[in-house]
Amino acid sequence: MRSAPYGLVAALIFVRFADEWATFLPAGSLEPMRRDLGLTYAQVAAILVALPAGGFLGSFFLVAADYVSRRLLASLGALAYGLAMIAFGCSHTLTGLLVASFVWGAASDAFIHGCEVALVDLAEDQLPKALARMHGWAAVGDLLGPLTVAAAAMLGLSWRAGFIGLGLLMFGYAAWVAGQRFPPPKPPQHAPSPLAGILAIARDRRVLMLALVLGLFSLLDEPLAGFMIAYLERVRRLSPALAAMPVMAILIGGMAGYAGYERLLGLRPARTAVIACAGLMAAALPAALFAPCLALQVPAAFAFGLAASVFYTTLDAIVLGLRPGQVGATSAVVSTVGMIVMGFPALVGLAADAWGLGPAIGLYALIPVLVLALVAADRK
Predict the structure, then answer these.
(1) What is the pTM assigned to this prediction?
(2) Does domain 6-377 match CATH 3.40.50.620?
(3) What are the domain boundaries of the chain?
(4) Segment 142-157, tens digit of pLDDT
(5) Where would a tag sit more exposed on the chain, N or C end, judged by fewer CB atoms within 10 A?
């Protein structure tokens, strides 16, 4: 990886930075979007669900990353990503937002995994370190998402401005990726047929177990931040700036975890680190949500973000290294299994409409507990 061109390495490392920056915007704009279009919480939650639902189509792109040009896949994915963001920002109906969100989610799979599969081939035995760098920059993107929403509000801009602006920037990323020389996929004779490869992976109990864990973990992302901010504003009566503080603490904790990943992990076995981090997440998230004052919520949120970053990097490296030469197909199976839980934000939205934001957001506190139970039960 040290001998690879700097432009290529940077393009691969920064892919999740760009994605996390952009994908925070729907959750961060939940309240103004709901007020502007007169939507219920269940309807805006459906928009948040449509984004990962694009993975149904995106799974084909994940498998394709093992067989076709990763450069073409990633650059066209980034182009479609930008177009979908602009369409989202220009939509004035729930249907338009749902369609744009679905296409956006599908395009993100082509964009991200075209780059990620290339990074796996490029990094080889340095993969955990490369993933920590990638996810570290993703945490910076996570931080820029709320800042973008806040800056637009301070400048008196519509919630739509961020989507259109970042959509245009994504066109630049597409051009950047298109100008790089990616590692080619393995020769056809060295790879199983796509269908045979997927069937073999789908029979791998280890893959399925980790897929379920990662699917549950993925729920603790932008929709959680959106509902947390809405809860703190509407129920706890905090100003938008104060309501964003626990979310910012989660993001900063994540950045600290990625930056210090190698030191935090040390020589500990991966399973030990994963269980310890899951336990810390299970304890910290309820405090981050429901502690009686920000002085307690913010440190708990930081601890949650720190544990989550180490947990995810370790598990991601395990998954991507399980089946060499089938990274894309493995990611496709993991993504598809993870979609079992993708309707969870809609459930939270329905609960918020029926019982209020407090009980609804409490459902999120159950997720790390389930994750802890699963990783503790996995003996491999």
Answers:
(1) 0.75
(2) no
(3) 6-377
(4) 888 888 988 888 888 8
(5) C
